[in-house]
Structures are given as structure tokens and as C-alpha cells.
Backbone:
């Protein structure tokens, strides 16, 4: 019966983690978009106006909501494997395995993240969501099994 619960935990962590992570990333983008709209809105009358320097003439090459093609390729597969590894680490009582997963993932993406700030933001949000989901699933099943 323990083996069945372990397999179920790995399936839930690996499979259902993707929709949860995508939902959180979509939510983060909508919050960012709403914040940018508020910043672009005109000031209400009566507030003193502060003169700021003009923004740069050329916009940044990458915005927070879009990524150039090829950036963070394989993220879905990496995310599934990451969640399975984290859940296994929790179920086997080896939480140090989580540190290995995070280190390997960060080192593997370092060059891309250094070049693209928008990718870096998505990477952090996606990784934290993915890790939290896997940790919750692993902890719930481990609690049940003990």
C-alpha cells in the first residue's frame, strides 16, 4: 500500500504541478500588467508634480511578459522532473536532495538567466511554485505513511 501512495504522490506532484505553476505565472504577469497600468495613469489634480528625466529612447529588448524564442526551453520537462525529485527526497526522508535539485537547475540555467531579466523572474516564480507544490504533496503523503 505504501508503494501505491508513493506512486500516487509522484504522479500528483509531477503531473498536477504544471497547471499550478502556469496559473501562478499567469497571475504574476497579470499583477505586473496592472501595476504598469497604474504607473502610466495620470496623476490626480492637487498633487505636486516632480519632473523626472526622460526615459531612454530605445525600449528594452525584452519585456517582463514576453521572452525571445528559445529562452528557457524544456521548462515543462525540467519542472516535472524537479517536482518528482523533490517529492522523492521528502518521501525518503532526504531533504538535502532538494538542495541538489535546486543547485543543478540553477547552474544549468545560469547563462540564460544572466542575459534575460524577464527569464530570470519567470524562473524564480516557476521554481518556487514548483518546489512548494512538490513539498506540500510529499509532506502530506509522508505524514499519511508515517
Residues:
Amino acid at each position: 500500500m505504501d508503494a501505491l501512495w508513493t506512486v500516487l504522490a509522484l504522479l500528483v506532484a509531477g503531473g498536477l504541478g504544471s497547471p499550478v505553476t502556469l496559473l501562478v505565472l499567469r497571475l504574476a504577469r497579470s499583477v505586473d500588467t496592472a501595476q504598469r497600468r497604474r504607473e502610466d495613469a495620470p496623476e490626480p489634480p492637487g498633487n505636486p508634480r516632480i519632473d523626472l528625466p526622460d526615459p531612454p529612447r530605445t525600449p528594452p529588448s525584452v519585456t517582463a511578459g514576453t521572452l525571445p524564442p528559445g529562452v528557457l526551453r524544456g521548462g515543462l520537462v525540467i519542472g516535472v522532473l524537479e517536482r518528482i525529485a523533490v517529492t522523492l527526497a521528502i518521501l525518503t526522508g532526504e531533504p538535502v536532495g532538494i538542495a541538489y535539485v535546486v543547485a543543478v537547475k540553477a547552474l544549468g540555467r545560469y547563462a540564460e538567466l544572466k542575459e534575460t531579466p524577464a527569464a530570470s523572474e519567470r524562473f524564480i516564480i516557476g521554481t518556487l511554485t514548483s518546489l512548494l507544490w512538490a513539498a506540500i504533496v510529499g509532506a502530506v503523503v509522508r505524514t499519511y505513511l508515517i
Notes: The CA atoms of residues 78 and 105 lie 8 Å apart.
